Amino acid sequence: MNKLIDVLLFILDWTWCFPQALIGRVKSAAWRGQMCPAQDASLERVKRKEKEWRCKIYLVKRESRDEHWFWKKISGSGIGRYICLAEAEPGNGEIDDEETIAHEYGHIITSRITGPFFILVMICSPLYSLKSRKLKKRGWAWEQVVRWYYSRWCEKLADILAGVNREKWIEERK
Ligand SMILES: [Zn+2]
Question: Which sequence spans correspond to the domains of the chain?
Answer without folding.
Answer: 2-173
